[in-house]
Amino acid sequence: MTSIYKIIVKDLNAVIERDPATNSKTEAAICSTGFHAITLHRFNHWLWEKNWKLAARIFSGFSRFLTGIEIHPGARIGSGFFIDHGMGVVIGETTEIRDNVTMYHDVTLGGTTVFDENGKVMTKRHPTIMENVIIGSGSQILGPITIGANAKIGSNAIVIKDVAPNTTVVGLAAHKVEEIRSKDKKKECFSAYGISPYIKDTNDNISALCGEIEKLKKEIKEIKASAKKTK
Prior knowledge:
single chain; 231 residues; alpha/beta; UDP N-Acetylglucosamine Acyltransferase, domain 1; 2 domains; 5-stranded parallel beta sheet; 5 helices; 16 strands
């Protein structure tokens, strides 16, 4: 219980340190819905770990009703976690969040269906957020990817690939992709958030073609240069 108490104190201190609108610990404890949500989650996660999973789900639903923040009791969250404003935040079951992470409203840490080398659905479906990450409002971080330590995710960014440590990413650029259907119908399943395991990103093909074009340009220059020397 002592360690849980220390973690809750760190969560409370995080509100004071990162929210200029909060002036005291008393105000933070009474008025911060993000602090309420994470404190209730600590209890719900304890129930989940004790295998009282139905009770954990019931209480997490009650927490969502009170705060507008949905955190699955299975999510693992480190100390010093701060959700500013909070409304509309969704954190999925296999999410892992390390220490001192800051998150704003309308953020989704969502899960996608991913298959391993043997064609089995992986149990890890949600992101891993490393230490000191800041996630802007409206961001969607989807799938079992890793956001490196000290990274910053800009508001409304959609992130479906790993982000390196000490990196800032921004942007909301949708593009056409090719969907490859599995021959084995039994392996096909619902595509959470529209991110299908059968999607092939056409940007990869475009990048490969651009590389080939640059290579051809270089060869043409070399041929022209050698032709001039011959003359």
